[in-house]
Amino acid sequence: MAAIKHRRTALERVEKFLSDTYFTDCNLRGRLFGDRCPPASLSCFQTRRRIPYQEAVAQQFGPAQVGESFGPTWETCWFKVELSIPSAWAGREVHFVWESDGEGMVWRDAQPVQGLTKEGEKTSYILTRSLKESEPHSLTLYVELACNGLFGAGKGSMIAPPDPDRRVTLSKAELVVFNRDVYELLVDLEILLDMAQLLGEENQRSFQALYTANQMVNVCDVTDPSTFPAARDLAAAIFSQRNGESQHTIHAMGHCHIDSAWLWPYEETIRKCARSWVTVVHLMEHNPELTFACSQAQQFQWVRSCYPGLYARIQHLAAKGQFIPVGGTWVEMDGNLPSGESMVRQFLQGQRFFQEQFGRICTEFWLPDTFGYSAQLPQLMRGSGIRRFLTQKLSWNLVNSFPHHTFFWEGIDGSQVLTHFPPGDSYGMQGRVAEVLKTVKNNKDKGRVNHSAFLFGFGDGGGGPTQKMLDRMKRMRDTDGLPRVQISTPDQLFSVLEKESSQLCTWVGELFLELHNGTYTTQAQIKKGNRECERILHDVEVLSSLAAAQDSAFQYPASQLQQLWRLLLLNQFHDVLPGSCIQLVVEDALQYYTEIRRAGAQLQEEAVQVLCRHLLQPQPCSTHSSLVLNTLAWERTEVIASPGPDGTETLALVTVPSMGYALVQEPFEPPQPVAVRKQEDGSITMENGVIAVCLDTMGRLTSLQLLDSGRESIPDGCYANQFALFDDVPLYWDAWDVMDYHLQTRKPVTTLLQPLEITLAGGLRGSVSFSLQVGKNSTLTQEIILDATCPYLRFLTQVEWKEAHKFLKVEFPVQVRSTNATYEIQFGHLQRPTHWNTSWDWARFEVWAHKWLDLSEHGFGVALLNDCKYGASAHRNVLSLSLLRAPKSPDATADIGHHQFTYAVMPHQGSFQEAGVIQQAYNLNFPLHVVPASRAQCPAWSAFSVSSPAVVLEAVKQAEDRPEAVVVRLYEAHGSTVTAWLQTPFPVKEAMLCDLLERPLAQGHLPLEQQGLRLSFTPFRVLSVLLVWSH
Ligand SMILES: [Zn+2]
């Protein structure tokens, strides 16, 4: 019989043969399942808590029925399911089918065995592939059903705040006979139909696939399985027609992106991991070729402690190379906001965990879903044993299409890593023909590389790969017209990419995501908690290391610090620190910060007690004085508030040596006191011999001068410290996005509640304060503070924020002309344009920075410092700091309430490097510690100092596994090549350079010289020095 001539009827005929909507009474799909039978009994009990299996099965179970609904949201319903398989089903494949809109987990013999989640296309648990008479026909299963979906419980839309009253329905629970031969034919036909439709009429393979599928329908009698093999042979014939040698190869790897918290709380993630991973383990039993790339040490740690049986199986499969730990970090963290040291700890905690648990560190950094990537990451990866990086998030760019999928990425110090973006632009592939074709077509490096990654499996809320995905890809192994699809591993892929790398291009600098720029600002309390806790852990580590070096009886709190670091690192997950999570997650995150603050304060006190014991213990003739500690590695002269004998606070100007302490008793007089004067028009001037400012009644700067040169910072007629409110309604991703058009809705905040008045008249400190009405419902009170000798003006700000979809910023127009502004990033800085020439320039209308940003021309500039903000911009001559947003999804209460934050403005002569902007920004973030002391006199003491202002000593900590050694981390901060001496009074036995995992470097031995240790830096180089004490 001749082939039919009408393409469309042929296509739709095959479609209908596979349809689960039409003609299921007579088509192939309708034959997928045979006989069915209900469970012998079904009972349940419900709980608000997420409880272990042993506790659950001991409860009283009451009757339950299919069709019933359970809830509300976040509750858990445990089902006891008694099954009795009819003996008439001998020889048949029998499934337990469970359909519900909640996330289910099957337990059998007290072990989790499989996740059952309709959204993740997992509704069948296979009881037997072929029922034997010898096997038990009766069994009991438990199903743990979470009353939330894969994506939480958003009311009306995925990212809407959770509906607290959502109920989940049990729509199916039964035993069925599964017709495997029908299933295999369905998969064959689905692939052929996709090939026919997607390869297009200009491709003859499209017609070959179509005519084969049509012929298969002709051959198939759905009521007679004996006709199926002939149909399958037709499919096999076309699938086995091979490609030529030049065909693209797709490296398929199972994957399951699980957000460590997002639209559900951390606690639910633990169960998501178990549900997803046990399903993978189960799949591997029947598909020994399946590989699964799995990131985030924290998630492994959760499964290890809550599901030890499953974890043991994972370790076994990891040893076989099937279950593949990747990433090397504690969590898939945000790529912009964590400090340099935090990023180091992500790798340190992650890689050490992987080494300890799986016998090897990860060789690929894995961050497929994070909102942009710091230009310091290549160096941090290289320092952590990683040369390869995988992500795909830049495919979300709103403006510019990133020009590569495989390239070398070069960081600010020149470190390079081989980087791959799966060209299919997804980490949740399903093994469809459309996806493999997109992967080839979309690849921007055609001709340079011929291999790419393909991550398959449901993700974000968990789920992972399915049998069907694997079965699809088996048919596409090597079929002419489609790329070759091989199950592979990250190592296999990157190894071939490395071999092919000679033609690859290089991208220098940050991988900026042109979307989600609101995440630098959303959930201000989380940002503040992060910055503050980074500081707390820094200080505790410094002081504890010094205490331990001073007194070998002091127990360095290594395990407590590890636990606190892990909490901080967890909160840096890419939906928590960015603020794109639900309220439940925010509450957990803030609780973790509270824990770090509490434990940190205690540990700090214990360290100071030991480090300064001789100054703190009451003496026979005690005098009152204050001990001032400086945890930064440069000398500081600052005004401190020190507690007096009668509980009052007195100000004092003190000088404290580099990373050390000094006693203050007699406050010394500043060279020039702060003068504060009210003018006739209500404006106030303040000056301290370094800078002079003039403030109008609304607290705006009309003048900011450097007294030395008389150089003015504010352009004529402009106001700095001008608050502005913007409408902030993005297109969809509310907590995530601020759009370019918000800039057109700028409204200066000019409603005065309390005009400017003097609150401290001067001397060591002068201050003024005022209040503004912000928008309809919010108020802002600010104290503007100028300290003696201080080069910056500080703005201590309190806001009662009750807005909806508004964005508050503060602006500093400055008299500086430059086409680039400089922003602090991890262990360094980078420049971004102040103009909007090209699409790459204007797409960065809102950017991120750490402690400071600066706009400088030759010889002069103005820096903006902050103590907990990350969003910023510099357009033309206006520096803006992003202060507060008010998105409503996924947390309707985001940022509503009280806020306190500080920023500062610092005009300077020369470059920001010469002016010490970097150090001043550290000073603002790391206040001196003041402790009441009992001694009157003691020489000032310094534990570490560095001879070059270009080098920042960032961290001092006890070496992992080596209590007799410390690791000192330093970086070059100016962008210069420099040699510096590191000095310490402690007796050093041995010094060597090590990597970020604290492994000594080859030729890393450092000679001990008279002046200390000589360290050589190139721009932005991070060095870790292992110091072994002699005692
Ligand atoms: Zn994610």
How confident overall, as mean pLDDT? 96
Query: What is the distance, rounded to the nearest whole angstrom, between the alpha carbons of the first and last residues?
Result: 94 Å
Give me the side-by-side strand order of the main sheet: 30-29-28-27-26-33-34-35-36-45-42-41-38-39
Q: Total strand count, please?
A: 55
Major β-sheet annotation: 14 strands, antiparallel
The assigned structural class equals: alpha+beta
Radius of gyration: 32 Å
How many alpha or pi helices?
20
Which parts are unreliable, with pLDDT below 50 for 5 consecutive residues or more?
Answer: none
Strand content: 25-35%
What percentage of residues falls in helices of 4 or more residues?
A: 10-25%
Instruction: List all distinct small molecules, including ions and cofactors, that are bound in this structure.
Output: zinc ion
Shape: elongated
Task: Please provide a written account of the structure.
24% of the residues lie in helices and 32% in strands. The structure holds zinc ion. Zinc ion binds next to loops.
